[in-house]
């Protein structure tokens, strides 16, 4: 049973087509929406929230039509926008309580709920300080807290790791996974880095130039796009030839070779080929997947 679906969804702006005949469904769980800058991710989220009427096609969230039932959709969905949009002169507590009340919670419930979500996202005493003095990581947490405060069934997180250092990024990804598993809230999270979503998502959708490139379970994804970097002291060319003869997909890459992983046997094939040719293996490493790798598939 899917939680949202689009069919032939198209969004044209005067000089660019941001979404082009996009048809995709999303199931409950944590889903990554990946694409380079300008691929159409934020546009899709705005349409799904009922904030932007599409030029053509249709979309529904929990069976509700995005064009005619936007307010009902926004009652069920939380939204963490990409850009910094926080008022600098109020505290996180004041802002999140205020937004909870706007979502329809009575004052006391709004205060309790705001305290809960701010704690869940890792803001403690700082929550009483003005947001203007917060670090980027703290601001991202406030944006996440306000997306969760009305107890939604689904949240749209637009580039939540933007501007964070590696530790902040790690903490945010762990938090996103917890939202999906412990809180039972479905998540649609965007990123331009496939590698970072791989850790937290059950499913990944890749779009490019507003078109659907791929939609697969994360397990299928990592298997089919996994590459090994193989480096030998000398003899990369004969090794490439031998691996090709043995049916492997090999490309030269700098001083090494990139070999597509077809299964566990790929590792054995490489080891045997290196031994047979009497070469000295200096590196055998799993390639880090980037969005570019998927575009080549
Ligand atoms: N209101 C608008 N008017 C005109 N063009 C727009 C508007 N909103 C988005 N676009 C254009 O549509 C394309 C898709 O933009 P969108 O923001 O959806 O991409 P994105 O995948 O979210 O990228 P990013 O991560 O950089 O925000 C871009 O070329 C963008 O310039």
From TrEMBL:
CDD domains under this entry? ABC_DR_subfamily_A
Q: Which family does it belong to?
A: Belongs to the ABC transporter superfamily.
Q: Which GO terms describe its molecular function?
A: ATP binding
Keyword DNA damage assigned to the entry: answer is no
- PANTHER family (alphabetical): ABC TRANSPORTER, ATP-BINDING PROTEIN
**Species per Swiss-Prot/TrEMBL record:** Nonomuraea africana
- SUPFAM superfamilies, alphabetized: P-loop containing nucleoside triphosphate hydrolases (SSF52540)
Which residue numbers delimit the ABC transporter domain?
4-234
Q: What is this protein called?
A: ABC-2 type transport system ATP-binding protein
Q: Does the keyword ATP-binding apply?
A: yes
The protein's matches in InterPro entries, at most eight in alphabetical order, are given as: AAA+_ATPase, ABC_transporter-like_ATP-bd, P-loop_NTPase
Classify the source by domain of life. Answer: Bacteria
User: Which keywords does the record carry?
Assistant: ATP-binding, Nucleotide-binding, Transport
């Amino acid at each position: 049973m899917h939680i949202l679906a689009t069919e032939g969804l198209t969004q044209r702006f005067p000089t660019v087509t941001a979404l082009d005949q996009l048809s995709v469904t999303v199931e409950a769980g944590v889903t990554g929406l990946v694409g380079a800058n300008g691929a159409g991710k934020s546009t899709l989220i705005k349409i799904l929230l009922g904030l932007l009427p599409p030029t053509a096609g249709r979309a529904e969230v929990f069976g509700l039509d995005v064009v005619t039932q936007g307010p009902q959709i926004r009652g069920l969905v939380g939204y963490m926008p990409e850009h910094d949009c926080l008022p600098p002169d109020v505290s996180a507590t004041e802002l999140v309580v205020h937004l909870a009340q706007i979502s329809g919670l009575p004052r006391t419930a709004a205060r309790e709920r705001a305290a809960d979500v701010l704690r869940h996202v890792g803001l403690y005493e700082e929550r009483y300080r003005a947001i203007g003095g917060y670090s980027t990581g703290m601001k991202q947490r406030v944006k996440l807290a306000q997306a969760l405060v009305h107890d939604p069934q689904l949240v749209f997180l637009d580039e939540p790791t933007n501007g964070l250092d590696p530790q902040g990024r790690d903490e945010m990804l762990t938090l996103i996974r917890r939202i999906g598993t412990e809180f039972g809230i479905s998540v649609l999270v965007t990123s331009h880095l496939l590698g970072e979503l791989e850790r937290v998502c059950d499913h990944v959708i890749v779009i490019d130039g507003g078109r659907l490139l791929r939609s697969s379970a994360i397990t299928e994804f990592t298997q089919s796009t996994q590459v090994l970097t193989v480096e030998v002291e000398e003899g990369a060319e004969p090794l490439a030839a031998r691996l090709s003869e043995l049916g492997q997909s090999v490309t030269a890459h700098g001083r090494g070779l990139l070999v597509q992983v077809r299964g566990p046997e790929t590792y054995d094939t490489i080891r045997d080929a290196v031994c047979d040719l009497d070469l000295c293996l200096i590196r055998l490493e799993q390639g880090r997947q980037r969005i570019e790798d998927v575009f080549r598939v």
